[in-house]
Specification:
Layout lengths: L2 E2 L7 H4 L8 H11 L6 H17 L5 E2 L9 H26 L6 H27 L4 H12 L6 H12 L15 H26 L10 H47 L6 E3 L2 E2 L13 H6 L6 H6 L23 H8 L2 H19 L7 H5 L7
Parallel strand pairs: 1-2
Antiparallel strand pairs: 3-4
Keywords: Cell inner membrane, Cell membrane, Iron, Membrane, Metal-binding, Monooxygenase, Oxidoreductase, Transmembrane, Transmembrane helix
Pfam family, one: FA_desaturase
GO molecular function, one term: monooxygenase activity
């Protein structure tokens, strides 16, 4: 691995590959205008094109200097800042357009909004994830707006207050268990994440001597933003517009939880006794160094480092080799497609989880409590 010097980050050319996601917006409009076979363009671009590009571009094992100054990252931050207004503007414009044209059949409109849900889930929620970890309030607000547009605002509370603290333990809903099928995981995490997020915020307020009804509870902001989006959908496109809006949100949420499923499948932190667990290390997340899909996902696949250093901006995230972190065989686009086929997923990933356990925790003889999630809750 080599270290990229800081001056390179000041150039727009070095950041441009991460701007490829912008091409998804004109593709969305091609689909809206022409319908028919063009309805496959969005899933083909996000799931398949970047998988093919991964094959030809290979792995990126270079690491940035983690001490690179914030000012040097302008062109990298810019894409995350402009995406929110572009996505929201496109979403509302689509609903307005579909309500005033009749060249698409109802099922074509559903497929179109499902395709846009892939965009708002693959790109939008991912950018919200980057923004919610940053200090400026303006960036956290953009994250809230993006999450509200897919009716998943509580993800911010759950991710920051629960997932990062309890990853790899029974208290983290989105650490997928060994042999847990995705669709079972999906049914489990939808209510579990909402409840855990609300409880985490309520507990924070209680420590300050305030009730959950205190207006500083971010859930009031979440509910208000989501209600505003639902109302806007109805005003722009009627009740059918509300159905289309909700469907794109469902597809986006499914995309997010597919990624959550892949990121930590079968990886658990060692229980030290008495509800104490080892600290989070790079070994507790699957790492993927595939170049092209990391362009699309702004280095989300360097997830081992993200959990190790959560506040690092995406261009500074480090990649690890197999000595420090477990490696996925393919990038997220391929892995999420495999994840919905349980037998194929188990055949691909269970041997890797078994090898991870033997490599890092040879002293653990009984993995039953880890597999079933029955270890004591962390203190």
């Amino acid at each position: 691995m080599t270290t990229i010097p800081a001056p390179k980050f000041r150039r727009l050319s070095s950041a441009l590959p991460f701007w490829l996601s912008l091409a998804l917006l004109p593709i969305t409009w091609i689909t809206a205008v022409y319908g028919g076979w063009t309805l496959v363009l969005l899933p083909m671009t996000t799931w398949y094109l970047f998988s093919v590009l991964d094959y030809f571009t290979g792995l990126n094992l270079d690491n940035a200097d983690p001490e690179t100054a914030e000012a040097d990252l302008f062109w990298y931050r810019a894409i995350t800042l402009i995406w929110a207004p572009l996505q929201i503007g496109t979403l509302f414009a689509l609903l307005w357009y579909l309500a005033r044209t009749d060249h698409l059949a109802w099922w074509e409109e559903v497929l179109l909004m499902g395709g846009f849900g892939i965009v708002s889930g693959t790109v939008g929620i991912n950018y919200a994830h980057e923004l919610m970890h940053q200090k400026p309030k303006s960036e956290r607000w953009l994250a809230d707006i993006l999450l509200a547009s897919v009716l998943y605002s509580h993800f911010r509370s759950e991710h920051l207050l629960v997932h990062h603290r309890y990853v790899g333990t029974p208290r983290d809903p989105v650490t997928a268990r060994y042999n847990e099928q995705f669709w079972r995981f999906f049914r489990r995490v939808l209510p579990a994440c909402y409840v855990s997020a609300f409880k985490a915020e309520r507990a924070m307020l209680a420590r300050k001597g305030r009730p959950w009804t205190d207006l500083s509870n971010p859930f009031f902001r979440y509910w208000t933003l989501q209600a505003a989006f639902l109302l806007a959908a109805v005003l722009l496109a009627g009740w059918w517009g509300l159905v289309l809006f909700a469907y794109q949100a469902l597809v986006a949420i499914t995309q997010l939880e597919l990624v959550n499923y892949v990121e930590h499948y079968g990886l658990t932190r060692k229980h030290l006794g008495g509800g104490k667990y080892e600290h989070v290390l790079p070994r507790h997340s699957w790492n993927a160094a595939h170049r092209a899909s990391n362009w699309l996902l702004i280095n989300l696949q360097r997830h081992s480092d993200h959990h190790y250093k959560p506040n690092r901006r995406f261009p500074l995230l480090q990649t690890y080799d197999e000595h420090d972190a477990p490696q996925l065989p393919y990038g997220y686009p391929v892995m999420t497609m495999v994840a919905v086929v349980p037998r194929l997923w188990r055949r691909m990933m269970n041997p890797r989880v078994d090898a991870w356990r033997a490599r890092y925790y040879p002293e653990i003889e009984d993995w039953g409590p880890y597999k079933r999630g029955t270890n004591p809750m962390p203190r």
